Amino acid sequence: MSLASQIEAKLSSAFHPEHIEVDCESHLHNVPAGSEMHFRVVLVSDAFSDLRKVQRHQRVYAVLSDEMAGPVHALALHTFSPEEWRGQAPDSPQCLGGGKR
Q: How many CA atoms lie within 13 A of 70 on its CB side?
């Protein structure tokens, strides 16, 4: 099972989302081919309805604490309540680090 699939399974179990996207964006960064280190997550859940953005992120980080302590280097989080969700989250910015300039 890929790391993206593991992340999706954990978040699905914890938040029962209406919508979830977990995309590995490592290929956009200056890392070895085949790396799974940089991820973009779009998560729409009732669990976020009365929480501020930082609280939402803290809850996601708590669920993914093992991954954040190990293989995950970067996690772009886009968290929405169902009322806030408009069907699209922003794209990640272009990486300018390492040899990508």
A: 8
CATH for 55:
3.30.300.90
Count H helices, E strands: the chain? 3, 3
Would you say residue 95 lies in a domain?
no
* pTM score of the predicted model: 0.85
Is residue 80 domain-resident?
yes
What confidence tens digit (pLDDT) does each residue in 29-50 have? 666 666 677 899 999 999 999 9
Instruction: With respect to residue 24, please indicate whether it lies within any of the assigned structural domains.
Output: yes
Buried-state track 55-68, b at ≥16 Cβ within 10 A, e below 16? ebeebbeeebeebe
Question: Which residue range(s) make up the domain with 8?
Answer: 3-89
Give residue 19's identity as a one-letter amino acid code: H
Residues 6+ apart with CB under 8 A from 23: 4, 39, 40, 41
What value does the mean pLDDT take over residues 79-89?
A: 94
